[in-house]
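Comment thread on ticket #2218

A.B. wrote:
> Attaching the input chain for the structure job we discussed in standup.
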Amino acid sequence: MSKFLRLLAFVLLPAFLALPASAQTYPNRTVKLIVPFGAGGPADVYARILAQHLTEETKQSFVVEDRPGAGALIGTDAVAKSAPDGYTLLVMSNTHTTNESLLSNKPYELMRDFLPVATINYSDLLMVVNPAVDAKSVAEFIALAKKEPGKLNYASSGPGTPYHMAGELFKAMSHTDIVHIPHKASGDMRNSVLSGNVQMMFDAITVMSELAKAGKVRALATTGLKRNPLTPDLPTVAETVPGYEATIWLGVMAPKGTPNDVIAFLNTAINKVIDLPGVKEVWLKQGAVPLVKTPAEFDAFLRTDIEKWANVVKVSGAKIQ
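C.D. wrote:
> Ran it. Output below, let me know if you need it in another format.
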């Protein structure tokens, strides 16, 4: 009998060890939050805040790993190919919903290869120019662009990013010819405008407002439909270009096949973090609004956003350069 039990244990042990995370205490080791964007951008900044509080909440390490490049494809594909056990998660944005229609040869499909976990926050963008640009308002910038078609540039952190699509939407709605200059990461994009190599960019108000206050760039407008509480004296782009709106939002997804109870655990934990009074207070001062959704609500949100940006890509004629 003892020989039989030893043989049975030998057969069953590998199967037990291979059980999904949902059958064990989750998390019981380090969880990686993969950010497919450059350091210093909104996704990186808020992922680190999230990781800090999740570590405190779960007593297990949540660490951020930046893997920028190729319009977020490199880091995103790495997560798509990772084990669906809840230990490798994707911090994503509307770059991903835009890429669904902008990039036809992606190695993954967002709604096929990932599961929605939770939303994080959203914020307006800030339209800024290098101080050397002879434009102090959106109207003056449009006039300058029309006077010299094809001579003004705008920077983005890569194809399909909210900054890219904000620029393309602006071009289409203002009927201007401005050249898109993509960069590998948001830090590179900012450096190009700060140095004057590129004239204009749309950037998250959460990271750009302080540079504008310091005079490093000139802020022309915010991109929401209403003036931002962080910059109440600054007009919206829509006040000059009626109907214009472009924001950035962040969320977390997991590889398809991740157990449902792990998804539910993460959703509850993330929503708890972004509902902390201290977190909400700091974020609102930065211009970021906490965004709380269930996995099902996030799924519907993603599908609507994919459709929205597909229409923008079609109307703007945006292409990967």
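A.B. wrote:
> Thanks. Noting for the ticket: Residues 128 and 219 are 4 Å apart (CA to CA).
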